[in-house]
Design goal:
The complex is a heterodimer of chains A (about 250) and B (about 325). Chain A is of the alpha/beta class and about 250 residues long. Chain A has helices at about 35-50, 70-80, 95-110, 125-135, 190-195, 235-245; strands spanning about 1-5, 10, 35, 55-65, 80-85, 110-115, 140-150, 150-160, 160-170, 170-175, 200-205, 215-220, 230. Classes of the chains: A alpha/beta (about 250), B alpha/beta (about 325). At the A-B interface, α3, α4, β7, β8 and β9 of A face α3, α4, β5, β7 and β8 of B. β13 of chain A pairs parallel with β16 (about 290-295) of chain B, so a sheet runs across the interface. The structure holds flavin-adenine dinucleotide (2 copies).
């Protein structure tokens, strides 16, 4: 079974982004970019399946500007076998990403596609579900445990009230939650080896997918700020302030 | 123009998330119908019919909708699509799972986790863990929207809408339900709790959560939350996680105990009305958003606080 893992290049989770003063977006110049953390978890899970003899090949794919190849290299350095870069400039919405991934999936015929549950920049939490819909495949989002059963999958999902376990008929889509695994770091020898692994260069136009955005971003603004309050000296003062000043007790 | 609100419910009653999403749905300006999909869910449908302003309730009562499987529920919503211009649901885990599937089947872009309805096609939504607010206009003829419920007031009762049965759609049969582990708790649910007490990595163990955080929560009648670090370490169950990638809450009072205040945690609680932080590090970033900060060792301060509240008759 081949496993396909879509990986997204995003602003590193440690960076606190700033809104541009003209309201056209957030400041992305000279900001540290990394692989979306949920996608690292997805790559890790695919590698573990391969190491357990359940998967034969792990292919990472990214849609984005030329620099997204760095994100693919990160996946290759972790241990993925090869990469596919689909070049697309500007605003590519989850629906268009899902359409491009569908085309890639039709060419690659994976038995499983593992995505992140959400990208930490746009926080849309859509792409995996959309891809599942377009392919007509089952989906298990927010996975905290994944088991392969022949060509089917048993997946435990993190849901509002606790955990839910479902069975999916393969081929299937799984999106990762934080507790699925702890991704490995790429070792130096593996980073060197990754430089020689193949990356297939494609263009979004190769797939005939319409990338015109359905959503128009009118403006991007700073959220309403919150001011630091006061420090209280002890528990007694805290209780008294909560009671009389804040009125929440 | 009609809007279909898809209800969060437990078959017996409607969840508070539905009342809040209804406020957003009504703000679109069209009539609102409510879809209740479940098994033996008549009581929930009747409760939906009592919500103020609802014009009609559709009840899809079928075993296929018993367990929140995305594929049959998406097929059901799509089967109703021709009668509606907008599909609105609260951004609970059930609808985060199903609504993008609906959107893709309708070939439209979902607008995720809106915090404000500007007009029938324009919405505000947070991006980058709430560090920026985007105003987006949807050009799609049909809108698919999920609602961040913490920013909308709940619509109350006062209606008496008719309840009609909706036919089940063909089940694609792609997935099946195997089981669930749902914690039974008498505490309020995080997303509707008026008060929340949360613990972080500093709690060090599940036992300490039970010994320090939970008694304080019980005194306050509060829900219990946790940071990701506490959940990852196994001190607290996953459904307690508050944050960018957990639950987003906005209670009257949020008490953060032994939590540093990482951006990802703040994203889930900074809209709380009053924030209290107890942390032994006076430079912890949590103090930058806290209304009342107490620099102290939690193992001393929390029992003291629990006791002081007891004396207040809590
Ligand atoms: C140069 C550039 C500029 C952009 N500017 C904007 C902008 O200003 N505003 C805006 O709204 N959007 C912009 N986008 C698009 C945006 O970054 C996302 O690709 C798109 O909106 C998907 O949303 P999401 O990542 O939140 O999806 P989610 O549904 O949250 O993503 C979930 C998962 O889907 C997969 N995935 C998502 N995107 C990709 C991808 N591109 N390649 C491979 N896998 C992927 C990953 O596994 C990810 O974990 C831009 C993209 C590029 C390349
Ligand atoms: C993709 C991604 C998603 C994430 N999503 C989330 C999310 O949804 N929610 C979330 O919470 N985090 C999330 N995080 C993690 C986040 O970045 C932080 O790592 C996490 O919030 C830290 O948890 P903490 O504050 O409990 O631990 P720490 O940062 O370790 O803080 C512990 C605090 O306890 C204090 N302390 C220690 N001992 C005591 C004592 N005896 N008395 C009083 N105070 C004490 C310390 O001073 C410190 O400030 C995410 C991270 C990533 C990469």
């Amino acid at each position: 079974m081949k496993v396909l893992v879509p990986v997204k290049r995003v602003v590193d989770f440690n960076v606190k982004v700033r809104v541009k003063s003209d309201g056209t977006g957030v400041e992305l110049a000279n900001v540290k970019m990394s692989m979306n953390p949920f996608d690292e978890i997805a790559v890790e899970e695919a590698l573990r399946l391969k190491e357990a003899g359940k998967a034969t090949e792990v292919v990472v794919v990214s849609i984005g500007p030329a620099q997204a190849s760095e994100t693919i290299r990160t996946g290759l350095a972790m241990g993925a076998d090869r990469g596919i870069l689909v070049k697309a400039e500007g605003h590519v919405e989850p629906l268009a990403v899902a359409k491009l991934l569908k085309a890639v999936a039709e060419a690659e015929k994976p038995g499983l596609i593992i995505l992140g549950k959400q990208a930490i920049d746009d926080d849309s939490n859509q792409t995996g579900q959309m891809l599942a819909a377009l392919l007509g495949w089952p989906q298990a989002t927010f996975a905290s445990k994944l088991e392969v059963e022949g060509s089917d999958f048993k997946v435990t999902r993190e849901v509002d009230g606790g955990l839910q376990t479902v069975k999916l008929k393969g081929p299937a889509i799984v999106t990762t939650d934080l507790r699925l695994n702890e991704p490995r770091y790429a070792s130096l020898p593996n980073i060197m080896k990754a430089k020689k692994k193949p990356i297939d260069d494609k263009n979004a136009s190769d797939y005939g997918v319409d990338l015109t955005p359905h959503l128009e971003v009118l403006k991007t603004a700073e959220p309403a700020g919150r001011k630091a309050g006061v420090k209280v000296k002890d528990v007694a003062e805290l209780v008294s302030k909560l009671k009389t000043e804040a009125g929440v007790l | 123009m009609t809007t279909l609100l898809i209800a969060e419910h437990d078959n017996a009653s409607i969840k508070d998330a539905t009342n809040k999403a209804l406020t957003a749905a009504a703000a679109l300006g069209a009539d609102v119908h409510v879809l209740v999909a479940g098994e033996n869910a008549k009581a929930a449908a009747d409760a939906a019919a009592r919500l103020s302003g609802v014009k009609k309730v559709l009840l899809a009562d079928n075993a296929a909708y018993a367990h929140d499987l995305a594929e049959p529920l998406a097929a059901l919503i799509v089967s109703l699509a021709s009668s509606y211009d907008a599909f609105v649901a609260p951004a609970t885990s059930r609808f985060k799972n199903v609504m993008p599937r609906v959107a893709a089947l309708l070939d439209v872009m979902q607008v995720s986790e809106i915090i404000k309805v500007v007009s029938s096609d324009t919405f505000e939504r947070p991006i980058y863990a709430g560090n920026a607010i985007q105003t987006v206009k949807s050009k799609d003829a049909k809108k698919v929207i999920t609602v961040r419920t913490s920013t909308f007031a709940a619509t109350g009762e006062g209606g008496s809408a008719p309840v009609e049965n909706a036919a089940a759609a063909a089940d694609p049969g792609l997935s099946s339900f195997l089981g669930e582990e749902v914690a039974k708790s008498d505490r309020p649910e995080l997303t509707s709790a008026k008060i929340i007490v949360s613990g972080g990595r500093a709690m060090q163990s599940r036992e300490n959560f039970a010994k320090y955080i939970e008694p304080l929560a019980d005194k306050l009648g509060a829900g219990v939350g946790a940071s990701r670090a506490a959940v990852d370490a196994g001190y607290a169950p996953n459904d307690w996680q508050v944050g960018q990638t957990g639950k987003v809450v906005a209670p009257e009072l949020y008490v953060a105990i032994g939590i540093s205040g990482a951006i990802q945690h703040l994203a889930g609680m900074k809209d709380s009305k009053v924030i209290v932080a107890i942390n032994k590090d006076e430079d912890a970033p949590i103090f930058q958003v806290a209304d009342y900060g107490l620099v102290a060792d939690l193992y001393q301060a929390v029992p003291e606080l629990t006791e002081a509240l007891g004396k207040l008759g809590k």
